[in-house]
Structure of Alpha amylase inhibitor:
Amino acid sequence: MEFMKRHAAVALSAIAVTGGLLFGGGTASATAAESVVAAAGGTAPACVERTSVTNKPEGGVRVHLRNFCGKTMRVKVIVKYWSDSGCKTMGHGTGWLFQTNGGRYDRTVVC
């Protein structure tokens, strides 16, 4: 499923940018491309701090996230070779510890 979302985001972004170049709608196309990427789980902004990201030697990950964005954020931890975290709602100033018994940390995305 993630594979399909990623490829859809890339394809739609390319179409939006190309359409903007051909028809002069640069600003609208850039906004459309950003919306597609966000909908497909774009990387969480830097204000969602990733502290203590650890890939355990025996397998598994440990990630502590803190939200300093000034607003509520919905985030998800993507794990290679294991189940992802699912969406987590984080209020401003809150933290969340996510751990698995297997896999490797890939990235944190908005959802």
About this structure: Strands lie at 48-55, 61-67, 73-80, 88-90, 95-99, 104-110. The radius of gyration is 16 Å.
